[in-house]
Amino acid sequence: MSARTHARTHESLLQLQLWHLRIGDISASDLRLGLSWLSPEELDYFRNCASQLRKRQFALGRLLLRGALSHLETSRAPGQWRIVEGPHGRPSLATDEPFIGFNLAHSDDRIVLVTGPLHRLGIDLEYGLKQREVERLARRWFNPSELAELMQLEPAARLQWFYRVWTLKEAWSKARGEALAPSMRCITVSGAEGEEFNVAVGGGEAGRWRFLRIGMAPGFHCALACRSDAGIRLASRRMSGLARFEAMETPSLLARG
Length: 257
Prior knowledge:
The protein is α+β, with helices and mostly antiparallel strands and about 260 residues long. About 30% of the residues lie in helices and about 30% in strands.
């Protein structure tokens, strides 16, 4: 079974939407205008952010989310959506809103959002040029087989391997709505250095989970996890201005179960 999504056939396909932006593509005037879309609670959080980068990440993440929701439901203006905070700070739509599953992630100057008709949907993004003590982290968080795979690699290849595995695990943790620490060893990733990678899920759920590695800008690693019996079809759009989206091709690799 090929790992490439465009080469794999399914009896049914589930459409997911990937939305992303680069912070520098949104002008200061668009950001100021977009703040009117935010709720009072969101504005309070924005004003209390400790750094300018975190302020922009938070505000633009919410503008990306609100713009995407209104792109999907054109009868609703971006400022009309009621977004509430759930466990572990994860935002979701209020219970009386039309259901659209979503999850946000950001790293450095990039923000990504995935939307779809699923409750269990998660995405993670990491800037892969940031140095990490990968051996120490792998010993703490990963399974023995994953650690053994890491140690077989040349030292120069270990950082990229680490981010590929980490993003898959964190996307799965976010999809389940759980804290990261208890989830890290509940799935096992193998073959992460190549395209034919595998993700093994315990607890009898393996056949119902889908994992994708998503191609982003150079230096970034992105992974998506969702619980679905159907195959995944991914459509991608880039936010280039306030509520302005451009369709684009985004390569992805599907894990073998």
